[in-house]
From TrEMBL:
Pfam family, one: Fer2_2
Domain spans labelled 2Fe-2S ferredoxin-type: 3-79
Entry keyword Translocase: no
Native source species: Desulfobacula phenolica
CDD domains associated with the record: fer2
InterPro entries in UniProt: 2Fe-2S-bd, 2Fe-2S-bd_dom_sf, 2Fe-2S_ferredoxin-like_sf, 2Fe-2S_ferredoxin-type, 2Fe2S_fd_BS, Beta-grasp_dom_sf, Diverse_Oxidoreductases
Top-level taxon of origin: Bacteria
Range of residues in the leader sequence: none
Keywords in alphabetical order: 2Fe-2S, Iron, Iron-sulfur, Metal-binding, Oxidoreductase
Gene Ontology molecular function, alphabetical: 2 iron, 2 sulfur cluster binding; metal ion binding; oxidoreductase activity
Protein name per the record: Carbon-monoxide dehydrogenase small subunit
Keyword RNA-binding on entry: no
Amino acid sequence: MKRIINCTINKETYELAIEPNQTLADLLRNDLGLTGTKKGCDTGDCGACTVILNGDAVNSCLVLAVQANNATIETIEGLSTEDGLHPLQEAFVEHGAIQCGFCSPGVIMSAKNLLDKNSNPNDQEIREGISGNLCRCTGYQKIFEAISSQCSDK
């Protein structure tokens, strides 16, 4: 039996009828068409599905959609505006941190969450901030450089 939840996703309010066993990743991708949230491992190991839920980066494949009732959610689609890409997204492009693009949304959301909480993280904090995100293309150095370029002391 479906349950009704209310939530705010990328600053838009939704009332949604969902199955009790539906994940937040599936809700975002299949019901709302927000396909920037990728489904990689579906076990919380790769971080491709990372979104910001009530101010914390989470693996949306491990969160039931019912847990998002009355929550605020940010996805990669919510970062850009009419004026263009978010500065963090631009930094990823400028630093060559985007290769195939599969992991990029999750990494960017983890990085945004880190920078929202700490505008000037040190090198170790940046590494820890994205430690839950796997990338097979870039070798992480370009990702690290892109995030580091957005620190407040740069």
